[in-house]
User: Fold this.
Amino acid sequence: MSHLIAPSLLASDFANLQSECEMLNNSETDWYHLDVMDGVFVPNISFGIPVIEAINRHTLKPLDVHLMIVQPERYIRDFKKAGANILTVHIEASTHLHRTIGAIKDEDMKAGVALNPHTPVESLEPVLNDIDLVCLMSVNPGFGGQSFIEKTYDKVRKLKQMINESGSSAVIEIDGGVSINNAKQLIDAGADVLVAGSSVFKADNPTEMISRLKNI
Ligand code: DX5
Ligand code: ZN
Assistant:
């Protein structure tokens, strides 16, 4: 499978979400990456269910929803109703992770688990065969525009090996500080999905940047 590009709307113009969605619809975007922050799990508040519902009315591609919230299990059905196709929860915010993964799949969504930079990939071993996606944070979650943490490459390689050995079908998504300068190295290390916020939306030509990231 060739890698996927998931632009993060966190870096888009929130006053013009419809036109941002149309730009992405007409680009080589594979998924829309939507970052939900609660001001508790991370020190920032972004947007929530009503905004995702509104975005969903203008999108033609899967919605990849990244929950940076405590007790994500409380909102699984709400995000499904809002249009989420992939729902990712943080391992650090999930006391009963195995149950939460089951609940996401019961709602017919793909289940993802995100890991903060300090969380070892080995912590996923017990659930690796139950999930569809691992989101490796390559910055500390909470803000766009931060610099990429280089240690991520080692984590990608290690996780790829674990996935191959276990027969898991999980894809590896990288989130934070992804740009044209590290995309190739990430793909070579084993990444399947690249999330890109600032590098896409702050580019002179976002559509062209998405194409460059896709065809790297
Ligand atoms: C960070 C979010 C990211 C963010 C990435 O907490 O999870 O998805 O939007 O933004 P960039 O690509 O600017 O680092
Ligand atoms: Zn994200």
Summary: The chain has a mean pLDDT of 98.
